[in-house]
Automatic annotation (TrEMBL):
Protein name (record): GAL3A protein
Source species: Cairina moschata (Muscovy duck)
InterPro entries in the record: Class_I_gatase-like
Length: 245
């Protein structure tokens, strides 16, 4: 059985003396992997996709990981009325909005130290393509937020795994030319190729592992699939990240 899917607490049992009533149970704690999760706001159209972020956190919890959540302390590119799907005149902060998903337990991405973590994961959502980079506006000529870029570069240099889902693989495609990612089916092949990377077609329930770069990607909501399949697909990404960590 895969211990990442079914974590357990080891218990040492000391046999009771003959005639004794109970045995002594001593819990033995297992060291979990330390994983940073980077958010881009709160909401699919201008921040992190809530279901993907939640799925990643649930699977990390199930895998026994120790998680800390981060977001850049910057203004959002725009604020979208999610009922109407149209932009508004509001101004919102990415860190403040991400705190909604993190239940307030979040840190500025500028404070992240790669030495304190074994892996990093970026859930999707259009906030990734608007706030963490400018791909939604500039396409192949996009720029990546300085703290996002330095975080990715630091984990890559330390040979620590990077997990990305939905649209967030464009971050890896921009920062690491030549890497392999999946962002769903064939319609994204040219967009990824424009960034100098190889697109691997995968089903929603699968993830792709670029072993050379320790980059794990899954398409999530880029596929039009039922929520439970997206949840499971994110789970395969998390599982592979933890294996590499």
């Amino acid at each position: 059985t895969d211990p990442l899917q079914f974590p357990c607490v080891c218990v040492c049992v000391t046999p009771a003396p003959q005639g004794g009533a109970v045995a002594l149970l001593r819990p033995v704690a297992a060291m979990g992997k330390r994983v940073a999760v980077v958010l881009a706001g709160c909401g699919v159209f201008d921040g992190s996709e809530i279901h993907e972020a939640s799925a990643a956190l649930v699977h990390l919890s199930r895998g026994g990981a120790e998680v800390k959540i981060f977001a850049p302390n910057i203004e959002q590119r725009d604020v979208v009325n999610h009922l109407k799907g149209s932009p508004t005149d509001e101004k919102r902060n990415v860190l403040v909005e991400s705190a909604r998903l993190a239940r307030g337990n979040i840190q500025d991405l500028a404070e992240l130290k790669v030495s304190e973590f074994d892996a990093v994961i970026f859930p999707g959502g259009f906030g990734v393509a608007k706030n963490l980079c400018s791909w939604a506006v500039d396409g192949k000529n996009c720029t990546v937020n300085e703290h996002v870029n330095s975080t990715l570069q630091a984990f890559h240099k330390a040979k620590k795994p990077i997990g990305l889902c939905c649209i967030s693989p464009v971050l890896a495609a921009k920062v690491f030319p030549g890497c392999e990612v999946t962002v769903e089916g064939n319609r994204w092949t040219s967009a990824i190729a424009e960034l100098g990377c190889k697109h691997i077609c995968k089903d929603v329930s699968e993830s792709h592992v670029d072993k050379a770069n320790k980059i794990v990607t899954t398409c999530a909501f880029m596929c039009k699939a039922p929520l439970h399949q997206i949840f499971d697909g994110v789970g395969t990404m998390v599982e592979e990240v933890l294996k590499l960590a």
